[in-house]
Structures are given as C-alpha cells and as structure tokens.
Write a structure and sequence with these properties.
Structural class: mainly alpha
Number of strands: 0
Shape: elongated
Strand content: under 5%
Order of helices and strands: HHHH
Helix content: 40-55%
Length: about 90
C-alpha cells in the first residue's frame, strides 16, 4: 500500500518596513548570520533588504516603496493564466 504524502501550503510572511529597518539595525550590530538566526529569517532575506535600502538611499527616496500584490494588479500580469477566455 502506498503512502499518500500530504503537502502543506505555507503562506508568505510579509514584514512591515519598520520590522525590516529593525532587522537591518540588528544585523549591523550583531552580524547578518546571528540576526537571521535570532529572527528566524534566511540570511539572503536580510542581504536583500540591505541592498534595497541602499538603493533607496542612493535614489534619495524617503519612504520604502514595498510592492504588494492585489487581485486587481495581478490580473494584468501577462503570464497569468486567465480563467475564462473570450
């Protein structure tokens, strides 16, 4: 008899700009590896946030512009399959 594997669907965690700023501050103080372990994040996530923050700083942007996916914006994606075609 074959065992059936059940896949669990995980949702992506969304972190506020304030949380990201605090995580970057912690990474500056204790290092990226230790900060990632303490916060339960991947090191690459902190490095990515750091790169984005530096780009914003270079461009002179005051507020972070985090993109969020909404049903209205995702409908216009060119590679998204359409549920009904005319």
């Amino acid at each position: 008899m074959a065992k059936q594997m059940q896949q669990t669907k995980t949702t992506r965690r969304r972190h506020s700009p304030e949380y990201r700023a605090e995580a970057l501050g912690l990474a500056d103080r204790v290092g990226v590896t230790d900060a990632a372990k303490q916060l339960g994040l991947h090191e690459s996530q902190i490095y990515s946030w750091r790169a984005q923050a530096r780009l914003r700083q270079d461009r002179g942007e005051a507020e972070p512009k985090w993109r969020s996916r909404t049903p209205a914006s995702s409908a216009s994606w060119p590679n998204r399959p359409r549920s009904s075609r005319s």
